[in-house]
Each structure stands twice: as structure tokens, then as C-alpha cells.
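Q: What would this complex look like in 3D?
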Amino acid sequence: MTSDVIPRAPAAGAPETRRLKGRGTPLRERFFHLSLLASLAVGVIFLVALLAYVVVEGWPRLDSRIWSNFPDIINPANAGAQSAIMGTIWIIGFTALYCLPTGILTAIYLEEYADPLRWYNRAIEINIQNLAAVPSIVYGILGLGIISRGLGFGQTVMTAALTLSLLVLPIVIISSREAIRAVPRSIRDASLALGATQWQTVRRQVLPAAVPGMATGAILALSRAIGEAAPLLLLGGLTFITFNPTGAQSAFTVLPIQIFNWISQSRAEFTALASAAIVVLLVILLAMNSLAIWLRNRYARRW
Amino acid sequence: MKSSTRSLRRATAPLALTAAVALTVSACGGSDAGSGGSGKEGEKLSGTIRVDGSSTVAPLSTAAAQLFQAENPGVKVTVGTSGTGGGFEKFCAGETDISDASRAIEDDEKAACEKKDIAYEEFQIANDGLSVVVSKDNDFAECLTVDQLKKIWAPGSKVNNWNQVDPKFPSEKLELFGAGTDSGTFDYFTEAVNGEEGKSRTDYSPSEDDNVTVQGVSGSKGGMGYFGLSYYEENKDKLKVLKIDDGDGCVEPSSKTVQDGTYKPLSRPLFIYPKASSLKKAEVEAYVEYYVKNHADIAEKAQFVPLNSEQEAELNKALEKLQGQ
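A: Here is my prediction, written as C-alpha cells for the whole assembly.
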């Protein structure tokens, strides 16, 4: 640690860097360390700025009205987002119900049962990776054409949840596979050597060990689903609805659609309302993430 | 660590089972519960009315829905904003009861509805007008032709001084304020002026909040902006409105010129299209009746230009015809 070279800017200090090469590279170390911090700061600063902005903007409306009242276009002071909050919770609940079992079972098949040398298994793999990159609006079109009209589910919570499930399924599958792959081979071998069947090995050894990774992936996937507005707008997510969903067959709206709708209103009260709704959405997200962290810590194990 | 594995082992089996059961139950519930909801009989009105379509008309339909629901708490009205075209697409697929439209139904949409045997009524419920405003300090511009507007607002336009608009104007920096790209106002203005919805130059100050446009334009001598006519009328003391020449001379926007259609091309009628088969349901008929009877009040609340007496007479005639059925 030679303190005299540290304060220099890396660009100006180019000759010094070369000179210092032989004696270890404290300048490079520092530079690397700083670039790590800078990258971290980009995310954190923008997040903090966003949070501060929406909280300040939405502060006048951050009270019980936001969750106890329904939308009101005539009198913004009475407006709330209860139908959107409940719609979001219903849809995310159903999405989790549809996509988590399907995604995790798919991941188990691909990791534990599928022969990676078979062409069809490789084709499935490539397709799943490609699906993760398909724009969400395309899933909206798919949902409208096949689920809503083709299967006749209409513009309902069920259609929305199925569409969002398809949207995030690749994320669930890929993250679950990573989690399963992280379980050491030796654990499986030991289990099989002791006479356990493959199913017993998966159920008793692999799955419990993979739960933390799967939980993280699942929450990432659901967090993406909760913020989606585009596919749901296409599916007939409503901008004015004054009742909560009562089941899979109800009409619905979700928070992102409600926020979008309020922001495009010309009256300033609605903009504050939109900010308040953004805060509510972030709180729901935070609660979901906390659950994931709790799950991860509860089931974490070291080898 | 060991205990947590065991507890999970116990927990997973019932969990998976519950999920599977719930999945099948909800999947089965799909078909039979779907047809319910609307059209229930009873002494009090109940049921669901699905309205979708133009985002411009949505505030009107929403205000009508809100006032109507206050009187008929049993009826659930939902309003969506798929856009006029998207609204008709759903309407002619039989998915909605009423379609909001910021233009009359087009021939191919009529054909699509006919194909599905969907008959409908047409009601004009309000007028929409846009005003182009400049600062009070602007003493040179009185009237612009549509071509001049297009020159200013066309995509990629390099016009940044008033003397480029018209050589007779003095050299004054042009500062543009306009609607944000999410608004119906933006769609409408770009379509009327630039000929294609959504096409606009992008180097102006956009705002979803018309108050920002008011402040921006009133504070700069070379400023120019556009928004709904009702907004100008509320801010008459701060702004000056431009006359628009669409080839038939300069016309100043006002409730009158918007209503009679002489203020072109920045005025248009707004429609609702209720489905004939839905109108047979008491709750849909009651909603449309309420909507039509209170159209002036609703237009005012949603800041639109109400109908003129001629349009109103036509609307009442259409309503009478409906009630006579």
C-alpha cells in the first residue's frame, strides 16, 4: 500500500501503472474495487431516487383511502385502488399456482430424468431459453387469441393468470434448473448407492437442497409478473372497475394498469394517486421478496 | 439442518396435492361459471355491463358508470380502454356490451360485426375539440393553416422559429409544448395534423398534465401548445387561442364551431355503440338511458363540449326509438 499513488486518476497514471507492475498492482486493485462500487451505486442510487420521488409525490395520498376506496373519476379525493390491489393479489396468487408446480416439475425432468444427448431434449432446452426473451406483449396476443377466445375463458382473472404464467414460466424453469444443478452429484450418488429410487432421491435429497434457489427464482418470476401491464391491457384489463374479483371468472384490473390510467389523467390529483399506488405496488413486491429471503434462510444448507 | 429437511419433506406432499387439486378445481370451474354474472332477472337491477373502446370517450363512460352505479348499486359497470379500433374488435367478437368510439364505425368493422350477427345502435354523446394556444404576449400570430401546423409538428421538423412558419412573422424562438404520447389528445392531434396517429416531432416538452402546458406556453412569448378546448376556456385569461384554417378560412374554436363541425380538423364527434342484444337486458338499457339523458352533465364533468340542440334532438329521437322497442 503505497499511499502516494492511490489518489491519482487511472488515466493520468498510466505510466505509473506500468512501473508498478512488478510490485503487485495496488492501483489496479483499487481501480477494480472502485468500479465494483460504482456499478453497485448505479442501481442503488436510481432505486433510492425513484423511491424518494414516488414517496414524496404520493405522500398526500398515502393513507387508508388508497386501499379502502374504489376508483373515482369525478372526485379524485375519493379515489382509491382497492379493486386494483385485490386484482393484483388474485392474479399473482393464481399465477403462482399455475406456474410454480409446472415450472419446477419441468426443471426436475430436464435435470434429473432427461437425457441431454437426445435431440428433442436439447430442442426443448433451446426453446425455453428463447421463450424467456419473447416480449411480454406477444404473450398478451397469445393469451387473447388462445386462452381468452380459443379456450373461451374470456377476459377474466383466470386468463390473465394463465398468460402471466406462460410469460414467467421460462424464468421459473431456468432458475429451478440452476438450483437443482447446484446440488452436488455426490449426494445423488450416495442416495442411489444406499438403495433409494430416483424418485426418492429427488424428493428426499435434491428438492430440499434446491428449495432456497428455487424460492429466489420463483419470487423473481412473480415479481416480474406483478409489474406487467402490457399483456394484461391487451387481455382486457379494465381501467374502471368498482368491485373486487370474487373468483377465477371475475373481470379484473391490476395495479400497473391503474397506475398507467391515473398517470394519463390530466388532473394533478391523479398523478399523486398514481405515485401512491406505485408505493403500494413496491410494498407488495418488498413483502414478496422478504418471503423469499425467509424461505432461503430457513432451508439453506451447506455441504 | 437435518430437521429442516425433514419438515420440508412432510410439508411438500400435501402442498403439491393442494396445488394440484386447486388447479383442477379452478380449471373445471371455468366453463360453468363463465356464463353467469350478467343478465340476472330480479326486481332490482343487477348484472355486469362491459364497456370498452376509445380512451378519449372512457372518461365520459366512466363518469356515467359512476353516477349510474350510485343509483343502482347492484349493477357492475366496467370500462376498458382498448382504443376505438381495439374496442370494435372486441365488440364485434361479442365480448363487450358497449363500444366507445371517437369516430364513426368503419366499413370493415361493420362487416366484422355483421359476420358475427351483432347488431348495434349508435349514439353521439359529446363533442371533442382541441385548441392550439399561444402566449398572450404573442401579438403576431392569429390564424394558422393546417399546413403550417403540419410544418411545425411533422416528425423530424426543423422549424424552430416563428419566421420559418410564415415569413411575415417576426424572428421569435418557437417553443413547443404538447400532450404526452400516452394521451388520446396526442393521438388525435397527430392524426388530424400529421395524417397519422402517433407521428410527431419529438423535440418538444411533453406533458400528461395540461396545467404544465398552460404554464409553459403562458410563460414564453414564442410558446405554442395544444390541449382540449375546455382547458383553454378555463385558462382564457392566460392564453391566446389560434384560429385554424382548413382551406375554408380561419375559424376560432368554440363550443359552437366544434358542435357544428366548422372548426376543422381539430373537432370530432364522440360515440357509444351499444349492442342490440345487450340493450334487451334491463340493466344495459337503464345505463344507456341514464347516459343519454344526462349527457350534458356528464360531458361537462368530463370536460368535453356538450351536444348542440340539433345533435341533442337526434340523440333523443334515437333514445325514443330504443324505448319504443
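A: To summarize the key features: Chain A has two domains: 1-16+23-47, 66-299. The domain at 66-299 of chain A is CATH 1.10.3720.10 (MetI-like fold).
Q: Very helpful, thank you.
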